[in-house]
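FAQ
Q: What does a multi-component entry look like?
A: The components come first, one per line:
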Amino acid sequence: MTGTSLRTYLLTRIALVLPMVFILLTLVFLLMRVAPGNPIQASLGGHVPAAYVHQIEHRMGFDKPLLTQYGQYLWDILRGNFGSTITDNRPLSQIIKQNGAATLELTFFAMLVALVVGIIVGLLAGRHRDTPLDVSGRLFGIVMYATPPFFLGLIAQLVFGVWLGWLPISDQASPLTQALLKTHTNILFLDAIIDGNWTALWDVTKHLILPATTLGLITAGVFIRLIRVNVIRTLRDDYIEAARARGIVERRVVFHHAFKNALVPVITVVGLNLAILLGGAVLTETTFNWPGIGHELYVYLQNRDYTAVQGIIVVFALVVVAVSVLVDFINAYVDPRIRY
Amino acid sequence: MAADAQSAPRMPYGRARLIALGRATKPIREASGIARALFWAGVVITLFFVVLAVFAPLISPYHFNQYRSNGIRFPQLAHPSAAHWMGTTVQSSDVMARVIYGAQTELKVVVIALAMSLGVGVPLGLISGYFGGILDRLLVLVMDAIFAFPYLLIAIVIAFVLSTSSIGGGVFTAAIAITAAYVPLYFRVVRNHVISVREEPYVDAARALGARPRTVIRKYVFFNVVQNVPPIATLNAADAILLLASLGFLGYGIQPSQGAEWGYDVSRAVSDAASGIWWTGLFPGFAIVLLVAGLTLLGEGLNETLNPVLRLRRFGQFEFAEREPREEALLDE
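Then the predicted structure of the entire assembly, as tokens:
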């Protein structure tokens, strides 16, 4: 059989995702523009002269017909122009670049924590099914799922920040580090490594530990469930039975035959979890005053900044869609059966 | 387990009326000790919060908004004490009263939100799945697009937009925001199930008898499909509480004057934490965790009971020797 090439698969997948992007963008536009109330007025507060409101309306193109606005909105996004905020006239592209780096740093390390905790607890719980180990693993998963990130963050702040005094409880780095560290990538962790600035790296790491662990543990709950079920299912498969029948030691059967296969779906779930992770990032960043996109969203929500909220939501939507395509691509690459 | 399995069949087959109930609850009774314990833990926790919510005015020592009693203002940020078991907040309100009244707010919003999600999602799914065609294609496209998006962000957008209008800030606004996030879920579940049910012989038979689509959907398809909903709705309720608390944390849930809300209380407590004040955040936070965990345990228990796919898993442990006494019991009837 010839099969479909990877490139064709990818192109088809992208073609399929375009309507979805279009619908998402349209929904955001409809919600934001057709909703009752004057967004500019709401963003600027009550005591602004009408002339100034009109001036801004004109600058934002809010005085044009709705259909023209819609066309302009789509065209701008196509060119990578996400507009700028009303309250402090900051281009969205700048927010993406600066705050996006902080979010990337946080989510990367959070995913790392989630994977390590999720895989270890999930494998153990699945391997020792219905033992106290399994029950405590499952309970841990449920409790982690049931805990909102901001509450876990609060406990972490209380215990490790206030009572033990080990770790800082807010910001991405101490003011001194932020002032001294040269900017290469906007990701402070990388910047410190590039400069070989070890004091800064230590400072950045210390600031990173609590937020990343908080977000990571919350996300781990999903991994634990998934991996546990997979291990149980895999251990019941015929080829495991066959391996046992061939007299292979149980330890080897479990580690060599079962675990590897139980971990394959994790790739998909890492991608799917990114959506959850982004939601969690908004809450975690707000709790720890971490200067990521989620934190900016929170700030602009408080300021009722319409264009900022709209722009950030659009960026999130594009990221979610892009990751889902990427995950499918990786899956197709790893498992040729998928690209039928 | 073995003794259980032998005596279990006799009860449901004993009285005809109990057959249905017996069959439905059988997996719970047959569940191993741990699974059953977890399920009942979920039931107890959920009931506990329902009681708190319903009898809040009787249980709570003060009103959630109350900051003084007998003309004396409560102390600010007071440690837990005999007068205030869980301490007081910076506004001098009693933390325990806010936690208890919080149960009322959370459950009220979640019940309304779920009712609305079901009310919109299930009929849409039924119609879309049964009739198919362009409407179906279009709905699937839109719903899938929303479904791919993080729940929290959908709810934020809706809450944000509604907050500008005059409706803003109440139980109903929060419920609408949550509804928008969950409609696609019910739509998908119901639609996919309808599509598989639509081709069943009994549906064909009804159609061949000349029943109108309305009747077919109402009498044949609906009850078959709706069985899936209770476990999903319970698990969803757990998720909805997290969502409401998250909205509250971001300042877009229930306005503080409208009701006590745990997520909002925790958000106020984050600034307290830096100075070592733990009681303002810990108690409402634990309330969230406990209620969500309880609903999750309950939902998973229901899932194993009502979901035939998961139930099948248990047959893997069946021993065939047990079949004979079961058949005898049947013949005895």
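Q: Is there any commentary attached?
A: Sometimes. For this entry: The longest strand of chain B covers residues 68-69.
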